[in-house]
Every structure is written in C-alpha cells, then in structure tokens.
Write a structure and sequence with these properties.
Elements: E1 5-10, H1 16-27, E2 31-32, H2 34-43, E3 60-61, E4 74-75, E5 78-79, H3 81-98, E6 101-104, H4 108-111, E7 118-123, H5 126-137, H6 141-163, E8 175-178, H7 179-197
Parallel strand pairs: 1-6, 1-7, 2-6, 7-8
Antiparallel strand pairs: 3-5, 4-5
Helix pairs in contact: 1-7, 2-3, 5-6
Length: 202
C-alpha cells in the first residue's frame, strides 16, 4: 500500500491547522506546516527565514535573507514566484515519497494530484470563525473580520494562481467539513473514519 498522505486546505479561523495536528497525533503521522518551509530552505541552501512567511504569499524579498550564492534565483531583489513554488513542490513530493504525511495548505492537493491522497477542506460559518478568533487570538470582532478577509484572500489568490483551479471548491476535495458541527476532535475523528473507509488511510 502507498503512503498515507492527507492534504488539508482550510478557511482562516476554521481550526483547520488544529484539526490536521489532531489527526496527526491520533495516527502518529507527521504534520507539515512550518516544518515544510524549514525543510525547503535547508534542502535548497537558503536561510530558513527566507521561507518563514506563515502563509502562502507572492514575491518573497531575499535582500536580507539570501544565502549560499544562488544568484540564478535573484530577480531585481526578489525571488521569482514560480521558482519558489517549484522548490516547495519538490519538497512536498519528496515528503510524500519518504513516508506518511499530513500537509497543510500550499497547494499540496494539486502538487500531489497523481498520488492517492485524501484531500480535505475545512470550513466554518462566518460568525463562528469570527468568534473563535476573538476567543483564541484576543481580537475584537472588527479585527477578526479584517484579518479573516485578508488571510482567506491570500490563500485563495495563491491557490488559484498556481493550480489554475478554485480554492475551496468542493469538487477539488474528497471531503469538505464544517468544523463548527463536530469541533476539533470530532472533525479529526470523522476524517480518520472517512479516510479508512475510503482506503486512503492505513
């Protein structure tokens, strides 16, 4: 049987990252978010800080973080967007080849589209996400809504640009879940049960 690979897309504030980690803890599978970026930096000779963006973004300045003489990747003080995406894509493929993995975001469902992966998208109602961000991050409703719009727009733009697809569209995933219904733990357990029934989780 091939490696268990779970790719998790998520709306900001839906708890998708927490759910991915809960699934990983239950299955004993590593979860790649910041670790993925660190791995990309190390394996390609760059400083880790070059990839420490926290979210999917376009145009990464390398003027203060560039390391090891990779001049071919410089373009007027910026790393070429497609070059950075290609680097991350290579690392994602290597992670999937090396063993079981849960990968959060970064178009992993598209990059690994030739493999038998479980692709999941986590969403939640608008008010639920705002309330959750206010509780967890200590934000006002106005701040939470503003941040949520910005983060979702960034993720949508990144995904749509590199995949030529539509971020969050149900047909891109085997499973789309509203995390407000079952909560973090319940949603994680549902994903595992679905994945095993579908033959995508060992």
């Amino acid at each position: 049987m091939s490696n268990t690979i779970i790719n998790v897309g998520r709306q900001f504030g839906s708890g998708g990252g927490y759910i991915a980690k809960a699934v990983g803890a239950r299955l004993g599978i590593p979860v790649y978010d910041n670790e993925l970026i660190s791995k990309a930096a190390v394996e390609n000779g760059y400083s880790k800080t070059l990839f420490d963006t926290g979210e999917e973004k376009s145009l990464f300045s390398v003027s203060s973080f560039f390391a090891s003489g990779r001049l071919s990747y410089l373009n007027s003080g910026y790393m070429n967007d497609n070059t950075l995406f290609n680097i991350q894509s290579e690392v994602i493929r290597k992670i999937a080849d090396d063993g079981d993995a849960i990968i959060i975001g970064r178009c992993a469902d598209y990059i690994l589209r030739e493999l038998p992966c479980l692709n999941v998208f986590i969403c939640a109602p608008w008010d639920f996400r705002i309330n959750r961000l206010c509780e967890i991050e200590g934000l006002t409703p106005y701040e939470a809504e503003k941040l949520m719009r910005k983060k979702d727009r960034t993720r949508e733009t990144y995904y749509n640009y590199y995949t030529f697809g539509e971020w969050g569209k149900a047909s891109n995933y085997q499973l789309c879940l509203d995390s407000s219904i079952l909560g973090i733990d319940g949603t994680a357990e549902y994903i595992i049960d679905f994945g095993k029934r579908a033959g995508l989780i060992k």
